[in-house]
From TrEMBL:
Coiled coil: none annotated. It comes from the Eukaryota. This is NmrA family protein. InterPro entries: Ergot_Alk_Oxidoreductase, NAD(P)-bd_dom, NAD(P)-bd_dom_sf. Residues 7-159 form the NAD(P)-binding domain. PANTHER family: PRESTALK A DIFFERENTIATION PROTEIN A, PTHR43162.
Length: 285
């Protein structure tokens, strides 16, 4: 029984695929671009083109029984998600594993949106699902901030004091793997995933300073400045404002509060450990 991994070669998708293959479980990637890891089979799937959805269930040698849903930067994924989920159910899919997020808006219910609306839909349909709700990725210090850290030795955020239990991709992938292979191992079907450390951004800068042997500073920008940067990246205005609001809530302790939620699973990897392991990637330019 194969697992269909949507979103192509994403961080968690690749890590999950490797875990599944190592345990003898077939994997099929679904990607718009066709960029998937070497050695894995793939089919074309474009969220903006429902006519491509059927191909995921026609791949020779694959009987898709699990679907790993991830939507990248799509602000309103529900219309596309509903179409694929309805088709997948007709094709005999057993379980959906949704990559969601830890924020308030992703709680299932009438006020949810984004991936939270997909979570709500899966629940309302009575489907077998696991909704993964990770907090902020540790890897983003390299993927999002890495260039500025390497060139200017700074981290710029609007979160000067809020502490966050940053989560590593490998820990997320392990929970996704359990959701497919060992679902009984999970304490609940809507796990909030946090890392082993609880750090503010200035504390992350201190950890980088210690590991890299050069001073890394945290610089605070305003919510308005952050929103304008998102707009400059080409994000829709509502999405840009939403992301800035998420940062504002993190500054006010929203991510730290997850440590008191009984649904929370604490990962094995901490931010300081991750930085030390990847310090060569932050070498100054």
């Amino acid at each position: 029984m194969s697992t269909l991994i949507t979103g192509g070669g994403s961080q968690t998708g690749i890590a999950l695929a490797k875990l599944l293959r190592a345990s003898g479980h077939p994997v099929l990637f679904a990607s718009r671009s066709g960029r998937v890891p070497d050695g894995f089979e793939s089919v074309k799937l474009d969220w903006s083109d429902p006519s491509t959805y059927e191909e995921a269930f026609k791949a020779p040698g694959h009987e898709v029984k699990y679907v790993y849903l991830q939507f990248g930067g799509i602000y309103d994924p529900l219309p596309a998600a509903k179409s694929l989920i309805e088709l997948a159910v007709k094709r005999g899919v057993k379980r959906f594993v949704l990559m969601s997020a830890s924020g308030e808006s992703t709680e299932k219910g009438p006020n949810s949106f984004g991936t939270g609306a997909v979570h709500t839909y899966l629940d309302a349909q009575g489907l077998d699902y696991v909704a993964l709700r990770p907090t902020w990725f540790i890897e983003n210090f390299l993927n999002l901030y890495g260039k500025v850290i390497k060139e200017h030795n700074v981290i710029e955020t609007s979160i000067p004091t809020g502490r966050i239990p940053f989560i590593g991709v490998d820990d997320i992938a392990q929970t996704a793997f359990d959701a497919i292979v060992n679902v009984e191992k999970l304490p609940n079907r809507e796990p909030i995933l946090v890392g082993a450390d609880l750090l503010s951004h200035p504390e992350v800068a201190e950890a980088l300073t210690k590991s890299l042997g050069r001073t890394i500073k945290h610089v605070t920008i305003t919510k308005e400045e952050l929103t304008n940067r998102y707009l400059a990246f080409g994000l829709p205005e509502l999405y840009a404002k939403h992301l800035a609001m998420v940062c504002e809530k993190a500054e006010n302790g929203a991510e730290e509060e997850h440590l008191n939620d009984p649904r929370t699973i604490v990962g094995k990897v901490g931010t300081r450990e991750w930085i030390e392991k990847h310090k060569e990637a932050f070498a100054a330019l």
